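Page 47, continued from p. 46.
Same chain as before, 234 aa.
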Amino acid sequence: MELLVLGGSLAAFRLLNAALERLVPPPPPAQRNRWKWRNICTSFVHSLLSGGGALLGFYLHPQMAEDLIDTHLPGAHRLLGVSVGYFLQDFIDMMCNQKLCECWELLCHHSVVIVCFSIAFLIHRFVGFATVALLVEINSVFLHLRTILRMAGLSHTSYYRVTSLVNLGTYMVFRISTLAWMTRWLVLNRESIPAATYVVSAVGLAIITPMNIVLFYRLLRNDYLRSSQHDKRQ
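Result:
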């Protein structure tokens, strides 16, 4: 059953990726990078599905928040499998369409996520903890929307400015704060976690957390620090 969910998700996102160019044609400014347009739109759909699904899971089954190790809804388990399928698809998509020097950070991120999520999905434990990690995708909705607006040549519009502000706000709440909370939870519950699972989770957080801090700085620099410096020169 687990392999069916993983394979079905990978195939579904692969088909979606192929169909998006017709469903959502790239605007003129994005014509020169049609692959990235499809890739970002696919990622946007996954973020809506996984981020919204994670919130809904905790709302419908608040007991999952009280026991992140053994308590979870069947739907939360399937959502985790769907996300693993997406990250596998995106990993393959980048390997086939980008140079390694251009995407090694994302490949590293995806590798960590695939390993950690797959363990929870296959052993049916720590699904709640992994679902907390999926709350990060709430921010990814606005992160991908920001990229879509930039690719469409709308980076000087009020829509982009609002999206950028919401992106930074949700980045702090659903990405930085979530990763910090997960690290704290992992340390406090050390005795309840098998050694191998603990090591994999700790290493994963140790890799992903600095990457997200660096990304936050890049977003702040690109959207605000550069524009402030430019205004001062005027």
